[in-house]
Amino acid sequence: MGQIKLESVTKSFGPVEVIPPLDLTIEDGEFTVFVGPSGCGKSTLLRLIAGLEDITSGKISIDGQDATHVPPAKRGLAMVFQSYALYPHMSVRKNIAFPMKMAGVPVDEQNRRIESAAAALNLTDYLDRRPGQLSGGQRQRVAIGRAIVREPGAFLFDEPLSNLDAALRVGMRLEISELHKRLKTTMIYVTHDQVEAMTMADKIVVLQAGVIEQVGSPLELYRAPRNVFVAGFIGSPKMNLLTGPEAAKHNAHTIGTRPEHIAISQTEGTWSGTIGVSEHLGSDTFFHVKCDAFEDPLTVRAGGEVALKYGDKVFLTPDLTQLHRFDAQGLRIA
Amino acid sequence: MATQHSRSAARIMMAPAVILLLGWMLVPLLMTLWFSFKKYLPLRGGDLGWVGFDNYVRFISSSSFWPSVQATLIIVGGVLAITIIFGVLLAILLNQPMWGQGVVRILVIAPFFVMPTVSALVWKNMFMDPVNGLFAHLWKFFGAEPISWLSEASLQSIILIVSWQWLPFATLILLTAIQSLDSEQLEAAEMDGASPLSRFGHITLPHLSRAITVVLLIQTIFLLSIFAEIFVTTQGAFGTKTLTYLIYQRVLESQNVGLGSAGGVYAIILANIVAIFLMRIVGKNLDA
What CATH code is assigned to B36-286? Predict the structure, then answer.
């Protein structure tokens, strides 16, 4: 149905190579998230898979069939764009019907699919409205509806939630996850938000400057980041990455310890420091602690009701079983 | 404009402009109406008194009235069709990334800067002249008999000249409209399986509908009153006598101001009928 395989795919815009040779296999039914900082080539990669950009060299196959030179419409993929790209002069119904109309689906079948997609996405009451009369979340659902009715081999999402406000984003995140559980179709999802990646993905592909830094399940990436970049990118708040004599004690160039793996105490511990800014989230509190041993402040997680305040002297103890060690090249030391 | 004071201050400051505009419009309009009810022959006795609706009856019953209305509508319709069809195509072409885009765009817009009189003279003498014109040479090169454009295909020639002048205007407005089309919409349609032609029909053209409406309305207003192109080419001969030209002939060639004024009133009525029709047909595009 929807296995996508990239073999030494490259992409250059003029003399600039944005994607050096890259190999990746996305299994059928998998929810794969491409995540990375902006400009890392994740959207370009998605557009290469969609066929909206030509690859410079290499091979793309979909379900074992060579799709390198197949036009976008014939690849059996549906895409949801960042701007939703709804057709403003058409009603919601016509928007959703458009791909079927282009494919020559009979009208009865069109209506049946529109009704079922609208019911699944809570759009039944809005079918006769224009996109301009809908809210951001509703537009997003219309864009998804337009993708669903094509019954594609795989869905491609290009930062679909970045135009929504925070509350809606959490809601739509759940809806897309549920949609994936229900349809069991391959989905490729591009985002710069590692929280979206962690919460939705079966498989995360971390990209930087067009290079795949690591591929794995969310927890694999969390537990065993392959290098410093992945370590710093996955997890919120980000991992504390420490260099210098303290790292050398552990035979590493850099050591990393997550905020949730540091114990905080007022009486004793490995590193002493002073509390700077503290962020109270109710369930948790994040302290930024300025330690004498390190230049940058450390982020430490504590319970929601810990009675520490700005300027307090504290001691920090990292959980040594959860300590990540990296060599001078930034690679993980096992 | 919150307070009483600022409101009245605003009125006083706007007054000069409003009065000037009103005077500019009302005085000629009232004088036209005034003369249209008089027998007024400046070189043959001057003001010869009131004649009622005599001028109106004579103008409309003249054998050249209906042909002139027809010529006006054919020219306006022909130019509108050509400028909008080719304007859309040129706008799409100019929107493609290409080498020397800026220069090409300026060159395309250039004809709009040429004065109507000049461009009509250039067309008449350098292109359409049956002996020395470029078209004549082209025809002769292929062994054909040169066409004397302005007498054998007079209306088509005028339409060609005027279209050449107004095409840049249409292209410019449509180009700016096409540039505001979200490229993701086109890509979405491409993924949805729409061929280039149906992408044009389903996405680009609806996006351009408002700009096309604007071009249609503005050009109609100006095209109803084209004069210079006819004056320097055919002088109204060979069926190119538009309503505007007929009025000019009545006033200046026949020296009959009263009859010409009555024609002017008819021209106003015709312009309004066309405007109402256009607004009915395309006006709804301007809402939303």
Answer: 1.10.3720.10
